[in-house]
């Protein structure tokens, strides 16, 4: 339910059932933010958060702790793990999305702002609109999601399987060639404005979006 709510708010979401699965996802592709349940099976969310804060690779990733514990001592204990925010059940999906945006904004991470600009391309994630040099861009829903993911993760290389997971979702079973088809379509649209080189092929690895020279 939370994943669906955050996806509707414009975020790319990956879900994990426990700390072990979450750690595997983290090692594969670190996220911009972690929404972490206190009462996970096995290793608790609090204990896993402590481990993340001791690991220099992940200590800067913002964490929002989700729990049914509403007592002041519990909140203090949760925040002492290094969590950036604390939200008590029950809460509305809109409140969670607002908290996520606020924490991302404080951390200076992608997704904290409703708009992202790269190389003259302006992406409005609230209105799902794109413009280049103030000219509206017409994209299919998939092309939009692909461009949104690229622009919120600039200069990073992603494999086809990673793009499938992030843009199409893990529950979607389609061939990796589908990524190539949509990459070509996105480049074709960007080519009309001289921006096709922003979507780059990294041979042997996948694709990267870069607006830098």
TrEMBL record:
Subcellular location: Cytoplasm
InterPro entries to which the protein is assigned, alphabetical: OmpR/PhoB-type_DNA-bd, Sig_transdc_resp-reg_PhoB, Sig_transdc_resp-reg_receiver, WalR-like
GO molecular function: phosphorelay response regulator activity; transcription cis-regulatory region binding
Domain OmpR/PhoB-type: 134-209
CDD domains tied to this protein: REC_OmpR_PhoB, trans_reg_C
Keyword DNA-binding: yes
Stretches assigned to the Response regulatory domain: 1-100
Chain segments annotated as transmembrane: none
Domain of life of the organism encoding this protein: Bacteria
Biological-process GO terms, alphabetical: phosphate ion transport; regulation of DNA-templated transcription
Swiss-Prot/TrEMBL keywords: Activator, Cytoplasm, DNA-binding, Phosphate transport, Phosphoprotein, Transcription, Transcription regulation, Transport, Two-component regulatory system
GO cellular component: cytosol; protein-DNA complex
Function, as annotated: This protein is a positive regulator for the phosphate regulon. Transcription of this operon is positively regulated by PhoB and PhoR when phosphate is limited.
Protein name, as recorded: Phosphate regulon transcriptional regulatory protein PhoB
Gene source species: Methylogaea oryzae
Gene: phoB
